[in-house]
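User: Predict the structure for this protein chain, please.
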Amino acid sequence: MSTVRTQPLQPLNNGQLNARTNVTPIKPTRKGKEEDKGKKKKEKLSALCKTPPSIVRTRNGRDYRRGTFLGEGGFARCFQMKDSSGRIYAAKTVAKASIKNEKTKTKLLSEIKIHKSLKHANIVNFVDCFEDDINVYILLEICPNQSLMELLKVRKRVTEPEARFFLVQIVGAIQYLHSRRVIHRDLKLGNIFFDPEMNLKIGDFGLASVLPSTDSRKYTICGTPNYIAPEVLGGKNTGHSFEVDIWAIGIMMYALLIGKPPFQAKDVQVIYERIKKSDYSFPPDKPISDEAKILINDLLSLNPLHRPNVNEILNYDWFKGSFPDKTHEISLSGTPEGLENISKAQSAINFTNTKVSAGIYTPRNKNPVEILRSDLHSEQPRAMLPKSLSPGDTRSKYQEVDPYQLGRPRRVNFNSSFSASIKYLNQVCFETYQNIRKLEYSKYDRIDTMELPSCENPTLISKWVDYSNKYGFSYQLNNNDIGVLFNDENTFLKLHDSDRFLELIYQENEGWTCIENSASHPPSQARRQLEIVDFFAKYMNSNLSKVSENEDRKETVFLRRYTRTADYIMFEMTNGNFQFNFKDHHKICISKNGLAITHVSPNRIAQTHPLIFILKQGNFPSTEVPDCLEKIHTIKDAIKRKAFKE
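Assistant: Here is the predicted structure, written as structure tokens:
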């Protein structure tokens, strides 16, 4: 048999390519070191991987010529492989001798099954898998420009414009994974590689797992110490889900901008203690923007439910800064010039184009990754890989799921006779929370250089009755409009000094529709609800005092959601305002997307000011509010919980 003559394979770059980096070991104590003297050092599992033969032959007749050794991790070695047409790949090589039990075998087959079913511009492409008598080979596209870890080792720190570009590509890939119910669980700089065009590709799915449903959890403690999320350390007591990947994005962002992970220490147990307490800081000698700090702090929230989900990260103000069109090869060795001089308009275009390339806007209508029992069992006693994972089996059986089906916001829709803007509630919460955080960071800036909001008193809920055990929640606004938020989530609003009433109806898959009707000649299906509205109106007018003095109707406002706690009741209005009635009878309203704040005293005197002014002064100027800053902190946390949890 003649041998095809090919050019010898050349090394691409030194260091690891497409291979798992070493996991930081737990260092023994001094006593342990003394006891270990003279003992043979434990051999890495990757050391069991024998160098493949010069030509690796597969079951389907394809031959691959082995090339340069690329690197190794804790479990595998990586070699170049060239096919008969001259195309070069990276082969992750796992020794069969290291697969000592059924659990280890299932883990490897699960990695292959998950990775094979993925297809995304920012995920290392799976090409093939095969085996010989000694090794199992996972053939992947080759990423010749090393990883983010190698870049950071050379550069020490990267600029914020570069980090923005990196994060968009990473977020695009993670959004795709999460839409298919895949958690990576080992996201780190060393597992994110540069392809020949300097696009980032996420690799190494050795710890990846598929959630059977969006509300299920995993309990295995796994990952790389510097990147492990606090809930992973809780093991079976807490469990973990998609949020561990969000935490890892925060770790990587911090490391890129500061130069090292936030919890880094020589002793791994110290790392874990710092993670559990969220014990990190921003060194003053390595300044970064306030917007970057806000995003990092939110990504590294101890409570996983307080972290932004993968669809919300790119909405942060940090991404509005200077944004390059791509990553250039010079970034591997030095800082590119002119990154801070990209215009705002061009940055916005580059940001949008990068999101499109990363699949942010790509609709997905298929099924999640599914691990079948038949995929994880060999069909021959000697073989490791079942036929269902071998070449010839198409990817079409592994379908994707639309990410918006996993909690998509309801589209807001209105009848043409009612022109109002009601944003999706959680998005309003998210924007308001972001603005409050931004003002907290900028409160030491000069106020005369800031653009301040207009500060007219907002429309407020003046009276309310909670009768949700039977009908719903009734309220009267300070413009005397009367509304009822019924238990079925529909709302009626009877306009003061008018024969009109508005009905806000929830429709499945369509959102909210507002219909205007005559109160004197209502539709038959609305008569009973109007009777209930009138009942509440009479009760409130007879028994309750107003929160503030009468206001003219500046806008039509509904109550869309309310929350009662032991310390306050929180009202979320359709105009984006948040009203908090505290148990000490002081009321505070946040308006203008978090830029303005109103206080109503127990004797019904209202005052509205820019929030930045109150944060700087520590209280309201004309009437002091007890525990003012503490109340604002409570408000911020309540809005944050709504943004990230509900």
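The longest strand covers residues 63-72.
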